[in-house]
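To: structure desk
From: M.T.
Subject: fold request, one chain
Message: Could you run this one when you get a chance? Sequence is below, nothing fancy, just the single chain.
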Amino acid sequence: MRKKNNMLWPSISIIILVVAMSLTGCSKLQTKINLTGESENWRGELDTTVTNEREENGEYVITYNKDNWEDIKGYKININEGRIIREENGLASNSIKFPIIRKQGSTISTQKDQTIVILWTDVNGKDFEEKMILKSK
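Reply: Done. Structure tokens follow.
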């Protein structure tokens, strides 16, 4: 009787170890990234979640700080030297929002700070350019 009992505990221990290792291997490692920055006329924010250093789901929000946002005829936003470029005519509101969704390879997770260059033209045809750095809060 004693021999059976001595063999039972190692078997149970091995089963518990295998189950624990399986559960740990299936878990998702998520990193929340929130960066903000500001220039004279613009404010930027990136709020994203990187899962297992590969998948990414988040959003950039670039906001014009002045009341005359209707006077912007067109703009171009360049993030991290061309990794993301957005260009449009006019603004529908003072905020520009665009999602970041990646299933294979996150460029955000490898970047500590984000460099954003904004070029815009007003209704009088005058061109402007500003640069801001988004950093961790």
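Reply (cont.): The helical segments are 2-26. Let me know if you need anything else for the meeting.
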